[in-house]
Amino acid sequence: MRRFFVVLRKELKEMLTWQTLIPILLVVVIYSFLGRVINQEQKKQAAPQALVVVDLDHSQISEMLAGILTKANFKVTTYTEGVVGDIVRKVASEKGAAVLVIPQGFEAGINARKPQTVQTYTILRSFSLLGMQGTFKLDAALTAMNDAIGDMYIKTGAPGLDPAVVKHVISAQSFVTVGTTSAEGDPQALVSVVMQQTMVIPIVLTLVIILASQMIAASIAGEKENKTLETLLSTPVARGALVTAKMMASGIVALISAAAYMVGMKSYMGSLIGTSSGTSTTVGQAIQKLGLILDLRGYVLLGLSVFAGIMVALSIAVILGAFAEDLKSVQILITPLMMMVLLPYLMTMFIDINTTSPVLKWFIYAIPFSHPFLAAQFIFAHNFAMVVAGIVYQFALFLVLATVAARIFSTDRILTMKLNTARRGSGLGGWTLVREGISLRIRRK
Amino acid sequence: MEKALVVENLKKSYGKFEALHGISFEVAPGEIFALIGPNGAGKTTALRIVATILQPTSGTAQVYGMDVQKDAARIREIISYLPEEAGAYKNLTGLGYLTFMAELFASDPATQREYVQRASDITGLGERLRDKIGTYSKGMTRKLLLSRAVMTRPKLAIIDEPTSGLDVVAAIDIRESIRRAAADGMAVLLSSHNMLEIEYLSDRVAVIDKGTIHDVGTPQGLKEKYGKANLEEVFVQVVRQ
C-alpha cells in the first residue's frame, strides 16, 4: 500500500505540470470571457429598441400607434415630415436600427376597414446571431399594432364584447403526467428546467473520459518510450498497484480539469440558456410533485453510473496504452475509445431510447458509456431498474477489462505487445497489432 | 557458496522467432559477468528475463536460489535493473527521482535517506541534482540512473550496455562506479557490444551470438585460449567457428 501511494504521488507530479495546467486554465478564462461577452450582448438586446416612426398620415390613429409601440418596449422617435429615403439614410448614419413608415391615408383606410400596408426599413449592420435578433423585433411592432387596431374594430363593431375574450376564447390549463402522477404546469418550461439539472453531466463525463484515457495511455506509452517502464517493472512495486496508481492519478487529474472546465462553462452555458427560463413557482411545484428533481437516491445512482463509466474507460485506455510503443501512437490507439464515448453521447441526445428500433436500442445499451448518459433520463422517468442494470453491466465489464489489464501488466505482454505502424513488404499500408508474432492487420484506406 | 545467478538452458521465443536457444551460465557474488555480442544476439532478452520483466519460454534462471518466474516479487527486492538507453522522468528533479526510487525499495525513512545520500555521492552531480532531469545531458542522466541502480546495494545488478552513447570521460566514470560497487560484494550481470570496455570491466565473459553462448571464460583466459590480442578478435574467431 505504501508503494502504491509512492507511485501515485509520482504519477500526479508527472501529470500535473504547467504543460497540462496552462491549456486548462486558458479554457476557463476563454469560456468565462465568452460568457461575459454574450451576457452583455443579451442585456443590450433586452433594452428597449430604438424605432423611428415616419408618420405621413398625421392622424389620430397613427399617433395612437406610436403610443402603442412605446408600450411594447420600443423607444419611439417620430418624424412627421420629410422624404422617407432621406430619413432612412439619416437614421442609418446615426446607427439607428429600424424605420417604420405610416403612409398617408392610413386612418381613412382603417376606418373604411380595408387592409393597410406600412413600410418597414431594417438597417443591417451585423450578421452575428445576436446582432440579427434586434431586426426581428419589427415583427413584434407589427403584432402590437394589429392587436390595437383589432381591439378597436371589436369595440366599435360589437360594443360590450371584451376583445381579449374574442381573441382568446379558449385557453389551456396544462397538466404534465409522469408515470402515474399528474401536475399542473407548462410542459416546455418543465422539460427545460429538468434538462438544466442534468445537461452538464454528459459534457463533464465526455471530457473526463477523453482526458483521463488520453492521460493514462500517454503515461504508459511515455514510460515505454523512455524505458522507465522497464525499470519500474523490475522494482518491488506490485503490478496491480502500478496499474491502479496510474488509473487513479489520471482520474484525479481528469476530474480537476473537468471541474476547471465546468467553472468556465457555467458562465458560458448560463449565458446561452438565458435567464428567461427561470423556474416559476408553478413549474417548481410541478417538478416537486412529479418527482423530477434529483433526490439522494437519484444522485447516488447517477454518481455510481458516471463512476462506473470512468472506470470502464480507464481500463480500456490501459489496455490500449499497452499497445502503444511511443507517444505518437497513443492518438491512433485512443480513437476507438473516443468514438465509443461520442457515439452514445450524440445518440442519446437525438434518439428516444424507448421508441427506437430494438437493434439500435441494444446496440446503444451494449456501449458501456451510454448508461451514464441515459441514467438521468431513466431516473426522471422513475425507471430505476434500468439504471441499476446499467451500473451492474458497467461494473461487470470493468471487472473483465481490469482483469485483462492486470494480466497484461503482470506478464511480459506489457513489453511485447505493440502497434506497428510500419509498412509491410506486401505494399499494403496499414497498422498491425503484434503480440509475439500473432498479428491482427488493420487495413489503412 | 551460493551462486548469485544460475541460468540453465534458457529459451525465449517471440512468436516463431527464437531469440535464445537455451543458454546457460553462472555468476558468483561480487563477480562482474558480461554477455558480449553484436546487436540482436539475445543479450537484452537474457537480461530482461533475469530482471523478471520477461518470462522464459523454457529453462530456468535462479537469483540466489529463487526462480525468476515463481519468486519474481522476492527477487525484485534484491536486484536492480538498468535498461539500455533508459530515460528518467523528465519533470522530476534528479533528487526527486532518487527519492522516488528509494521510497520504492526502502522500508523506513532512515534507509531511504541513506539510499539517496549514497546515490547523490556516486552521481557527482552536486547542485545539478536539484534541476529537472529534462535539462540533463545524456551522460548526466546515465550517471543518475547508474547511481540509482547501485544505491540500494542490490545483491545483483543487471546493467544493459552501461556506457552506450557516452563520451569517454562519462564512460570511465560509470565503469569506475560499477567496479567499486562490485568490490563491495554486489554481483553484476552486464551486456555490451563494446568489447574493450568488457575487457577492462569484467571478471568473466560469455560470448553470445544469435541466441547461443559460444564460450565462457575470463578475458585473459579467452585471449590465451584463442591466441588473440584482444576480446574483439576472440569474438570474431569464436563466432566463425
Describe this structure in words.
The complex is a heterodimer of chains A (445) and B (241). With 445 residues, chain A is α/β, with parallel strands linked by helices. Chain A folds into two domains: 48-168, abc type-2 transporter like fold (3-Layer(aba) Sandwich); 181-411, no CATH class. Chain A contains 19 helices and nine strands. Chain A has helices at residues 2-15, 18-46, 60-71, 84-93, 106-111, 129-133, 137-157, 163-167, 187-198, 200-226, 228-233, 239-273, 281-290, 296-323, 327-350, 358-366, 370-380, 384-410, 413-416, and strands at residues 49-55, 74-79, 98-102, 119-122, 175-178, 181-184, 417-420, 430-435, 438-443. In chain A, strands 2-1-3-4 form a four-stranded mixed sheet, sandwiched between helices. In chain A, strand 1, helix 3 (60-71) and strand 2 (74-79) form a beta-alpha-beta unit. The two termini of chain A are 47 Å apart. In chain A, 31% of the residues are buried. The model of chain A is unreliable at 274-278, 421-433 and 435-445 (pLDDT under 50). Chain B is α/β, with parallel strands linked by helices. Chain B has a domain at 12-86 and 153-240: 3-Layer(aba) Sandwich (Rossmann fold). In chain B, 40% of the residues lie in helices and 25% in strands. Chain B contains nine helices and ten strands. Chain B has a six-stranded mixed sheet with strand order 6-7-8-3-9-10, sandwiched between helices. Chain B has a four-stranded antiparallel sheet with strand order 2-1-4-5, covered by helices on one side. In chain B, a hairpin with a 2-residue loop joins strand 4 (58-63) and strand 5 (66-67). The mean pLDDT of chain B is 91. The interface between A and B is medium-sized, with 28 and 36 residues.
